[in-house]
Amino acid sequence: MKHLTTLAALLAGVAFAGAAGACDTTLRASDTHPDGYPTVEAVKAMAQEVEAATNGRVCIEMFPSAQLGEEKDTIEQTQFGVIDLVRASFGTFNDIVPETQLFSLPYLFRSTEHMHDVLDGPIGAEVGEAFAQHDLIALAYYDGGSRSFYNAKHPINSIADLKGMKFRVIPNDVFVDMMSALGANATPMPYGEVYSAIQTGVIDGAENNWPSYDSSGHYEVAKYYTLDQHLMVPEVVAMSKKTWEGLSPEDQAAVKAAALKSTQIERDLWAAQEKASEEKVKAAGSEIVSEIDKAPFIEAMKPVYEKYVTTPEAKDLVQRIQDTQ
User: Fold this and answer.
1) Which terminus, N or C, of the chain has the lesser number of Cβ atoms within 10 Å?
2) 76-101: per-residue pLDDT in tens?
3) Which DSSP helix (H) or strand (E) runs through 230?
4) CA 320 to chain centre
5) Are 30 and 61 in contact (CB under 8 A)?
6) Number of structural domains the chain divides into
7) Are the C-beta atoms of 136 and 79 separated by less than 8 Å?
8) At 30, phi and psi to the nearest 5?
């Protein structure tokens, strides 16, 4: 309960700064997640900082729960300047900003801390420059958690335990190839069908992060959860380049500073939400495998990397990510 209290305290400390009538400029921000979700609350905190730093000249109005559209649509609207700010997963940018594709590779990051170090350093800056080539300004990188395997059959302690099992995956070729490389069978299907599919034995399990494992109720039908953390896909807050260029240098600096400050707020909120979900599913009887040797899993990904990391530039980027300490 301590971590639940911590989450509530963090949320309580993030005040909403909606559109204010007195503002000279009101920017519209979109998120598919609902109110209270870490990414939404972090952008609200950013809004509060921006309004204070600009003495009310610039305000940000948050539109959560996909009010302005789903991620792909809102990204396109942001490119055209119809929407000013969008929070979306790197995965949704794959067809728009090619540099984001590599971040969907399995076991690219050793840990959450490693991912943060990569994004907060020179590589994150380079990726930001790639966004700018597509009419978007990358302002902040958020945490979207790590995906791990859960199933209804038995604990997964090694690759051998995955052999022949059927796992739901996002309809994505990388995920399908990842499961094949691990000796399991990938079953792409809509997220909403997973609970009943596990319950009826159509699939043995799925993979996702702590909050999704909890909120979906999947822990009720798949009590074995293994923290292999095979995928960590960052989130990004991006601004329309058209909107950015319409701001004064002073206001641009204020927006950038507020976005960077919101990064830690989002990460703290995410960590608290993860801990609350972990405690909930453990109390409900889920069996958690937290100590696992990832080396064989990573070794099994060689054919996947050979298939998707083909250019010298991509190989160099992957190597630099892996070398980041």
Assistant:
1) C
2) 999 999 999 999 999 889 889 999 98
3) strand 224-231
4) 21
5) no
6) 2
7) yes
8) -115, 145
